[in-house]
């Protein structure tokens, strides 16, 4: 066995923000990490930058914004875990250019979101939100009004990914006709039918539900123009991201009665903690369900996310594996404790691997195994070598032009 070279786990600082499920803390502890700080809230600005100064691994949910400026100041940060599906809160390209892989949990809360959406479809179709609000004020609204069964109604799903497709199955079990629109070709589940365009879907649906990621293309993808295409008396549900819908326009269409109701779980500006005030132009409407970004907030989902993301961070920290990273070349690798393991992250330039190998071959050091993956921007190589002068080797690896980061793992 080699002598111990890497940073001892007790010195690897893990910071978990935003009340991540305690399953993550247990998972780090079980893997030998003891330097863990756990906060219930998000941090921003100066407070976040100060806190990150000595942090090696950071866990966040959807509220902590990791901008290039914040990342640049976090000199020791070597990995980020988003304990969520969305990763739009992190500047992924900046992270990559700084050699920081970002991991997430792409599946663990999808069922929870789908269940909430199905519940909201039924509640909105039965006008429960406005009847409930009236009852709280002492008014008794016992009338059929515009209450309908969901059976036989058209549900339009925008974004037929992990969540959209589960909503599709559940809604079809309730007797709804499912239509969907996705920019990618998707396998239709059950009897669901694809639409050629967003406009086609909007014009045909009694309820529209949004399940797209936040991207430049999805910014305000539902605004006045699209709302005007929706059927009179139809419903809109947004549990994707706040930036996807122009809520001022939605408020106008609710005001005019063109839309019969809506549900929103996500907002362009969400409070950083439960003590901050929440404001939205939708607050004036009894026929709108407002929830505080809790689509994925169930015990089942949060426990699974805690385990899934912490395990990805631990595998990267322990072995160098980047499987599941959303901004990094993926290297799947097992530990090889009989050798010394080096990680080298560099800008993807021709000839760099030759320079890296020269550091070893020039000293007659045997490279036992090498794993390289690249993307258009960076290269990530793991080298298992048999060396005695590892610190010197590391120094030379760091000195290679276009190196972003180099470390000895063990
Ligand atoms: N409310 C919550 O608590 C909560 C929880 C989980 C996820 N989310 C949000 O839901 C989003 C979707 O989650 P998912 O797991 O289904 O993601 P996914 O990646 O599995 O599916 C997203 C789908 O949207 C499609 N898409 C992308 N851009 C599109 C466009 N312009 N028009 C039409 N389709 C487009 C993609 O091709 C993909 O099929 C996440 O990105 C996240 O922002 C919210
Ligand atoms: O946990 C949260 O803050 C919500 C995360 C959710 O929107 C997701 O993208 O998974």
UniProtKB/TrEMBL annotation:
GO terms for biological process: L-serine biosynthetic process. It comes from Mariniphaga sediminis. GO terms for molecular function: (S)-2-hydroxyglutarate dehydrogenase activity; NAD binding; phosphoglycerate dehydrogenase activity. Keywords: NAD, Oxidoreductase. Coiled coil: none annotated. Pfam families: 2-Hacid_dh, 2-Hacid_dh_C, ACT_AHAS_ss. Belongs to the D-isomer specific 2-hydroxyacid dehydrogenase family. This is D-3-phosphoglycerate dehydrogenase. Residues 341-410 form the ACT domain. The keyword NAD applies. It is an enzyme of class 1 (oxidoreductase). It catalyses: (R)-2-hydroxyglutarate + NAD(+) = 2-oxoglutarate + NADH + H(+); (2R)-3-phosphoglycerate + NAD(+) = 3-phosphooxypyruvate + NADH + H(+). SUPFAM superfamilies: ACT-like (SSF55021), Formate/glycerate dehydrogenase catalytic domain-like (SSF52283), NAD(P)-binding Rossmann-fold domains (SSF51735). It comes from the Bacteria. InterPro entries: ACT-like_dom_sf (IPR045865), ACT_dom (IPR002912), AHAS_small-like_ACT (IPR054480), D-isomer_2-hydroxyacid_DH (IPR050223), D-isomer_2_OHA_DH_cat_dom (IPR006139), D-isomer_DH_CS (IPR029753), D-isomer_DH_CS1 (IPR029752), D-isomer_DH_NAD-bd (IPR006140). The keyword Oxidoreductase applies. Pathway: Amino-acid biosynthesis; L-serine biosynthesis; L-serine from 3-phospho-D-glycerate: step 1/3. Its EC number is 1.1.1.399, 1.1.1.95. Catalyzes the reversible oxidation of 3-phospho-D-glycerate to 3-phosphonooxypyruvate, the first step of the phosphorylated L-serine biosynthesis pathway. Also catalyzes the reversible oxidation of 2-hydroxyglutarate to 2-oxoglutarate.
